[in-house]
From TrEMBL:
Annotated spans, Disordered: 1-41, 67-132
Occurrences of domain Peptidoglycan binding-like (ranges): 178-225
Record protein name field: Peptidoglycan-binding protein
Keywords for this protein: Coiled coil, Membrane, Transmembrane, Transmembrane helix
Pfam family, one: PG_binding_1
Location within or outside the cell: Cell envelope
Basic and acidic residues bias locations: 87-101
Source organism superkingdom: Bacteria
InterPro entries: Peptidoglycan-bd-like, PGBD-like_sf, PGBDSf, UPF0194_transport
Transmembrane segments: 48-68
Length: 408
């Protein structure tokens, strides 16, 4: 533990009062952190207070001998004996993080309505999925549905999934033009149908390909596509919950679904808004302590909600979504609470040592116990950023690779 060089009692207590370290003024004892209490989050300053308290109570040496000198000078002072444990001064990047609560899952759900063209709102027009028939088949929760596969059946007619962003809001036939035609033709081509050009125009070649597609689906070969004949979504989908029952009228909400990859969602307090944007890197800690790297893929608009079960003030939050490229890092978890560490401050190419290598100096400030071929001495240091049980240090004689003692 860090102890003053002359005594271990009141002086140690005075320097371990839980104050937040200032990266640019480490020679004195910094003031206590102030600010409103947190309800759910883990502010950076709390982490630094803990690190500071740890540094001032968990690492120190020979407190009763006065080994660091009585005049409080800034020069190196000889140590009486060598340490039993050492570490090296590292050149590294330190990142201080803001820890927030997140949820591992498949993301927010969206509904699929009977006769839906995009999984959001009911479509109008004909087709077997327009709400006028009976549901004869439904998928199971957890099923993954890909392009061309059946979302549900109405009167035994298959309603398949197509990929795209424009719903089918009208009957598509020869002569139709528009982005919805482009969506249909791209999907037909991806499913292996030919005889047309993928563009925005519905030609007789498109109609022939549609007839071949309808035959394979076991549907009437009309050469036309109506709203409700298929469902359009951005990609493969995973069924979250089945809302309807077989044998009932195909109307209203049939099911909800999500994407197929596990991701992290965070309701981020707006005071941390400056820490996130698309592409921001973060670290996710799972319930078993393992970690995975994540990237912010979406930052929504602020939403104001009153905390559940509390009479406190409204809290504004931002819906934030993070993706995890290496899905294996998530193990077998399908849904779980997680901790997300967002980078709040980063210092590159700095010299750092473990926090417990610091020694409190008589008269204020800190030193490290330098171990060299010629002996052991205390070298005063200035402190910088604290992060991940490491601390940035600088000072005369502090170089990369220097061995420093770890006091018992």
């Amino acid at each position: 533990m860090i102890r003053p060089e002359s005594e271990q009692g009141p002086a140690a207590a005075r320097t371990s009062g839980g104050a937040d370290f200032d990266a640019r003024d480490a020679e004195g004892v910094p003031p206590k952190a102030t600010g409103p209490p947190r309800r759910r989050r883990h502010p950076v300053r709390v982490s630094l207070i803990v690190l500071a308290a740890t540094a001032l109570t968990a690492a120190g040496i020979i407190a009763a001998t006065g080994a660091l000198g009585g005049d409080g000078g800034n020069g190196p002072v000889a140590a009486p004996s060598g340490p039993t444990r050492t570490a090296e001064v590292e050149r590294t990047t330190l990142t201080r993080g803001e820890k927030v609560d997140g949820t591992l899952g498949y993301g927010r759900t969206s509904p699929v309505q009977a006769g839906s063209g995009a999984g959001e709102q009911p479509a109008r027009g004909g087709g077997s999925g327009d709400g006028g028939g009976m549901l004869t088949w439904l998928p199971r929760e957890g099923d993954v549905i890909k392009r061309g596969e059946t979302v549900y059946r109405v009167n035994e007619d298959r309603v398949p999934l197509l990929y795209g962003s424009t719903p089918f809001y009208r009957v598509l036939n020869v002569g139709a033009e528009g982005t919805d035609v482009g969506v249909l033709e791209k999907n037909l081509a991806a499913l292996g149908y030919t005889g047309f050009t993928v563009d925005l125009e519905y030609t007789s070649g498109t109609a022939d390909a549609v007839r071949a597609w309808q035959k394979d689906l076991g549907r009437k070969e009309t050469g036309k596509v109506a709203p409700g004949d298929c469902v359009v979504a951005s990609g493969a989908r995973r069924v979250a919950e089945v809302k309807a029952n077989r044998g009932t009228t195909a109307s209203g909400e049939i099911l909800t679904w999500t994407g197929t990859k596990r991701l992290i969602t965070v309701d981020l307090e707006t005071r941390y808004e400056d820490l996130v944007k698309e592409g921001t890197k973060a670290t996710v800690t799972l319930p078993n302590g393992t970690q995975a790297e994540a990237t912010v893929t979406h930052v929504g608009n602020a939403v104001t909600a009153k905390p559940t079960g509390s009479g406190g003030d409204d809290t504004a939050t931002l819906p934030v979504t993070l993706s995890v490229k290496d899905q294996k890092k998530l193990g077998r978890y399908q849904a779980a609470p997680v901790e997300v560490t967002l980078a709040a401050e980063s210092r590159q190419d700095v010299l750092a040592v473990p926090v417990n290598a610091l020694v409190a100096r008589k008269g204020g400030g800190y030193a490290v116990q330098a171990v060299t071929a010629s002996g052991v001495e205390y070298r005063p240091v200035k402190l910088g950023l604290f992060a991940d049980a490491m601390v940035e240090i600088s000072g005369d004689g502090i170089v990369e690779g220097l061995k420093v003692g770890i006091p018992q």
